[in-house]
# Entry
Amino acid sequence: MSESNSNNITIERKHSHVEICLHGDVAFNRKTTGFERFDFEHNALPEICFSDIDLSTTFLDKKISAPLMISSMTGGYSEAAALNRHLAEAAEHFRIPLGVGSMRQVLENSSYRESFAIVRKYAPSVQIFANIGAPEIAKGLTDTEISTMLELLQADGLIVHLNAAQEIFQPEGNTDFRHVLEQLSIITAKIPIPVIVKEVGCGISASAALRLIEAGVKVIDVAGAGGISWQKVEEIRYTRQFGQETRFSTPALEELLNWGIPTAQCLLDISALRKEHSAFKTIEIIASGGIQCGTDIAKSLALGAQIAASARCMLKALHQGVLKETIATWLNDLRTVMFLTGSANIEQLRNTSLIIKQ
Ligand SMILES: Cc1cc2nc3c(=O)[nH]c(=O)nc-3n(C[C@H](O)[C@H](O)[C@H](O)COP(=O)(O)O)c2cc1C
# Structure
């Protein structure tokens, strides 16, 4: 494939991802995040004042104002600059971290770099994370490629996304996932900033998390099932290109479109590792995949996450012109749960037990 052809496909893909995530039927329909399985115990004697509740916490040793991150989404085409600018303004306003979308475009071509660089301009004081996919990692990134991505953002860390199911469904998907772990070990040893590994909606199991930690990864973002199905997003792109060409049998297709480990299950399984593996004690977990309100954030923290993160709800709110209002509402939900559980701060909320509903 010529360089310009591959560049056009990358631009079309990032553009249509946003459009399909905004307007397409891409939610899991046979699976939920699992948060509805849990309840907090009501505390009739909170003994705290609502207005004194402190939402601040730390993420990778930096103080942040609330346990929420805007997940990696976009960059690398003309309209992405405006989206990233608004996401960055919101992150700066709330003093919360932000990830950018895959920077594969930056490695393929020097156009649209501003659509990534703009994030640092509008979010000068918060943590910003670069992003690249497993298939690019597997090929082996050069030192120049890594420093190009990190310097463009003055990044605080590098996010690597694992998206095997997405690549299988993607019309132009790259399904060679050999050497990802080996290359991750090389990168974590080489770069002076933390490496975060995330899924994109199929979740990370405890056994995969263990292998990632052994490779030097500092943060696991579970990005579990129950929110958006990237298999569905790519299936829409596939049928637009090739019509209803059959690749899977009908019952298998339904199951594969709903493939993945629910977000709450990932959190339970990965945080259980802390008891058995000392290396896990310093690892931070991000809860993402279908987070849609402040009570989901609260349950995530009680299930062991350091912070929660959201992509599609943030994008939809931005599209409707209510991004800052939505984040403020989620933080008010969170504060309300903290009040009703008697948690004056995030550490106390993390130590609150959840009841498993029968
Ligand atoms: C429009 C859009 C584009 C995305 N692009 C990327 C990407 O480039 N890199 C990445 O790691 N994740 C990407 N994601 C996945 C999200 O970061 C997140 O892991 C996933 O959507 C699950 O979270 P959610 O249910 O809150 O959307 C994208 C999500 C959206 C909505």
About this structure: The chain has a mean pLDDT of 96. The pocket of flavin mononucleotide is lined by residues 17-18, 21, 71-74, 101-102, 131, 159, 161, 198, 200-201, 223, 227-228, 288-291, 310-313, 315 (CB under 6 Å). The longest strand covers residues 128-133.
